[in-house]
Design a protein that fits this description.
279 residues; alpha+beta; Phosphorylase Kinase, domain 1; Transferase(Phosphotransferase), domain 1; 8-stranded antiparallel beta sheet; 3-stranded antiparallel beta sheet; 13 strands; globular
Length: 279
């Protein structure tokens, strides 16, 4: 993976710190001390989220924009072994590039802002990725947990289906599409949706229906796992699917053909969720 900065970004180094930052906010990032050796520790001193990957919000000075910063951590088998140590900064730079390319292609994703990393030992680095903060949004899990009425649920489901379709049509392939990775912004007449957390995402040619359905059902399983499927209901699921397919009858039929096999997978996952005390 090349270490060149994406178009419009500047690559800066000082001591153990590497900062790849949108040129429009470079001076504000410098003033905030993001090139200082303790930049990562200060940024996450008051985390905004405590999921698998810690998150924080950065204020870029008076009148400046806010950023959403996410620490990169290993999942799966490597998680307990490597934690937040990565071989170089390639993964964070890849996320910047992918997010920028998808946004340029019309996908509803955040605007990329920066990649920040600090050398730990040898080639190992601690890394974080920043995007411009999506104001007035709430993740879909929090939205559903607030017990919205049926009208709001249907509007949110329609917005989510349309957003994921635009994401896929732009070439987006999400590595972990789940309910908390959809941000909702409710307006007086419509709801908008943003697809976030593009760690390990990629841009590819148009996906075959099986790939699309695999991601859609991963999102569905996250509702089951979190006990939120009942809040969406059959009407919400139908509204999401209809918004995703639009007028594309061939795609709708191709996805439906894959539904029985995918539902069998859901049944298997339900057993695991119950054993773990979830769902």
């Amino acid at each position: 993976m090349t270490r060149d900065a994406p178009r419009g970004f500047r690559r800066l180094e000082r001591g153990r710190i590497e900062l790849v930052v949108d040129g429009e906010i470079e001076e504000r990032a410098r003033a905030l001390g993001l090139l200082e050796d303790d930049a990562l520790e200060r940024a996450f001193a008051a985390p905004a989220g405590h999921g698998r990957a810690p998150t924080a919000r950065l204020e870029l000075g008076p009148g400046g924009p806010r950023l959403h910063l996410r620490r990169l951590v290993h999942g799966g088998l490597l998680g307990p072994l490597l934690g937040s140590a990565f071989l170089g900064s390639g993964r964070s730079l890849s996320e910047l590039r992918v997010t920028g390319r998808l946004r340029d292609a019309g996908a509803p994703v955040p605007r990329p802002a920066l990649a920040l990393s600090r050398r730990l030992a040898g080639p190992l680095r601690a890394c974080a990725v920043g995007t411009f903060f999506e104001e007035d949004t709430v993740d879909a899990a929090e939205f559903l947990a607030s017990a919205p009425d049926d009208r709001r649920v249907l509007r949110a489901a329609e917005a989510a289906g349309a957003a994921v379709r635009r994401f896929h049509d732009a070439g987006g392939r999400h590595a972990d599409l789940h309910v908390k990775n959809l941000l909702l912004r409710e307006g007086p007449h419509a709801t908008a949706c943003v697809v976030v957390d593009l760690d390990k995402a990629r841009v590819a040619s148009d996906a075959i229906p099986g790939e699309r359905m695999g991601e859609l059902m991963r999102l569905f399983r996250s509702l089951v796992k979190r006990g939120l499927l009942g809040r969406v209901g059959s009407g919400g699921c139908a509204r999401f699917f209809s918004a995703y397919c639009g007028d594309d009858r061939r795609l709708r039929a191709a996805l439906r053909r894959r539904l029985p096999a995918e539902l069998r997978k859901v049944a298997v996952h339900r057993v695991g969720y119950r054993a773990a005390g979830r769902g």
